[in-house]
Design a protein that fits this description.
This protein has one domain: NADP-dependent oxidoreductase domain (TIM Barrel), CATH 3.20.20.100. It is globular. It contains twelve helices and ten strands. By secondary structure, it is an alpha/beta fold.
């Protein structure tokens, strides 16, 4: 029953979103959340040369089951991003319409992708909610992000997000786009709301997405952080610092047992013509539990799945 309904929905959604889906290879990965999310507020900076491709220790699959840190959450290696040029409750993915984006998520689901990456600022909650109607809720991981920095705002977001997503719980809830080095004390009220929500089962894990090296270092040291969404790619494009510096912080996180999710895997499109090399870098780090990439149509999504298997 699931399969028949899902196939009918995908066919309808694909037809509804076909015009918006012709965004092209050039747009794929260029924006704020494509190929790894982010807010695009940071300058490109000085890039380092692409390092030589190294042999991977094993074969990988986009759909292989991974565990996110010590959270106990099991999901797919590849998360489906929904926020390319994601701001103001809009993104390239939401431009596909509810039917089009939901069909894209379900296309990924049918290939074993179990990780839906959404956020309030992308405006993609209704699209994810529609996809969730067509799959067993316990088979997918839903991650969302809040810009709230105080207790009242975070509590309101938790209630609204669940209504918008049509679910009684959110698997991972992150504080979105943190930049302050003292965020773990400055925003304690919002953090306490998320801690209480985890105790009640409203969320399963909490953490942050970091957009400065100071915020990233604070996250590595904070026992509160279950999961960190971090910008990482081989050339340092749109990252918090150069790759070696960021990798050093990620190793600290790994030792602490934190869940580490990668974003900006293709450097906000700077590595669009070097996708295989960038994926090889991410897979070969041995530090990322999973990573998120925002495909904009079925062809791009299918190509990502193929490239990861071939790496």
């Amino acid at each position: 029953m699931w399969t028949a309904n899902r196939r009918q929905f995908i066919a309808g959604g694909a037809a509804a979103g076909i015009g918006a889906a012709i965004l092209g290879r050039k747009a794929f990965g260029r924006g704020t959340a494509g190929f790894g999310l982010g807010n695009g507020h940071h300058a490109l900076g000085i890039l380092r040369p692409l390092p030589p491709t190294q042999p991977l220790p094993r074969k990988f699959s986009a759909s292989e089951e991974v565990t996110i840190g010590k959270t106990g959450i099991k999901t797919s290696l590849l998360a489906m991003g929904t926020g390319t040029v994601g701001s103001g409750h809009h993104s390239h993915q939401t431009a596909l319409g509810i039917g089009g984006l939901s069909a894209l998520l379900l296309n990924g689901y049918d290939q074993g992708l179990r990780f839906f990456d959404t956020a309030d600022s992308y405006g993609s909650h209704p699209h994810v909610a529609e996809a969730l109607k067509h799959v067993p809720r316990d088979k997918v991981t839903v991650l969302s992000k809040s810009w709230s920095r105080d207790a009242a705002g975070m509590q309101a977001d938790l209630d609204r997000f669940r209504r918008e997503l049509g679910t009684d719980h959110i698997d991972i809830l992150l504080m979105h786009c943190l930049t302050e080095g003292d965020w773990t004390t400055r925003y304690r009220g919002a953090m306490d709301v998320l801690s209480a929500a985890k105790e009640k089962g409203i969320i399963r894990a909490h953490g942050c997405s970091c957009h400065s090296i100071e915020a990233l270092r604070a996250a590595a040291k904070s026992p509160w952080v279950d999961v960190d969404l971090v910008r990482i790619n081989p050339i340092g494009a749109f990252m918090d610092a150069d790759p070696d510096t960021v990798i050093g912080v990620l190793r600290e996180m790994k030792r602490a047992g934190k869940g580490i999710l990668g974003m900006k895997i293709l450097g906000q499109g700077q590595l669009l013509d070097k996708q295989d090399e960038a994926l090889n870098f991410a897979l070969g780090l041995g530090l990322l539990d999973a990573f998120t990439i925002g495909a904009e149509n079925k062809t791009e999504q299918d190509d990502l799945v193929r490239r990861i298997a071939a790496a």
